[in-house]
Write a structure and sequence with these properties.
single chain; about 230 residues; Rossmann fold; seven-stranded mixed beta sheet; 12 strands; globular
């Protein structure tokens, strides 16, 4: 049974759509990018990883291939059906409590920017709850300028399709509504979602609220950071 769509979130196009507007068939087509390199540069080889919001396993599969022991979490059963080689858990991130800890916890896909402040706090608490002493939390955040110069069009990773960021509009309380279109030769998908942009001090503040602090920035564009227990 499909879960109810969240307020402010929408997805269109062929196949199943998750509550946050993600299209399962679309994400099955997207290639892994630099995420496995980021992880490999931040945690020991063979580490235990908890991947939050794994989707169809776009990143999961590459991490498994590199020898990491991955537990992959997603609330969508349609997404989890596509994951191979990892232990899977169906759960919302903010309510996850496995009663165990991991060498590293991954919170990618700019999930930390969810428009719901309570959900974001719950996600970060889940990260803190599941990271082992001496471990780390790897978080992907928005790049500076993500909401400027729109609409904007780029060629998707690996080529063969186009990504159009159509708009980013304020809807109140620091939250923005964003719409993105993915155009393939044989299909078109859209996703509308809500984000809360965070300045660097605001980002550090929300981490501190979960008992975390930035250890180091992992990428030149500043999007991936390594956080540790404060």
């Amino acid at each position: 049974m499909s879960l109810e769509m969240r307020t402010g979130y929408e997805g269109t196009g062929p196949g199943a759509i998750t509550p946050d507007g993600c299209a399962v068939e679309l994400y099955s087509r997207l290639a892994v990018e630099g995420e496995p390199d980021v992880v490999a540069g931040a945690v020991p080889a063979g580490a235990t990883l908890l991947e939050l919001g794994c989707g169809v396993g776009r990143v999961t599969h590459a991490l498994v291939d590199r020898g990491f022991q991955v537990t992959a979490v997603d609330e969508s059963p349609e997404m989890l059906e596509r994951v191979r080689g990892a232990r899977t858990v169906r759960s919302a991130i903010e309510t996850l409590d496995l009663g165990e800890t991991f060498d590293a916890v991954l919170l990618g896909s700019i999930l930390v920017h969810t428009g719901d402040a309570e959900v974001r706090a719950g996600m970060l608490d889940a990260c803190r709850r599941h990271v082992a002493d001496g471990g780390c939390v790897l978080i992907q955040r928005e790049w500076q300028g993500a909401h400027e110069n729109l609409p904007r069009e780029v060629t998707g990773p690996g080529g063969g399709f186009t990504i159009r960021k159509l708009y980013s509009e304020p809807v109140g309380d620091g939250v923005r509504s964003v719409k993105v279109e993915y155009v393939f030769p044989d299909a078109v998908w859209t996703q509308t979602y809500r984000v809360r942009p965070l300045t660097p001090p605001e980002f550090e503040q929300v981490l501190a609220g979960a008992g975390l602090k930035i250890d180091r920035v992992l990428t030149e564009d500043g999007t991936w950071v390594r956080a540790v227990l404060a």
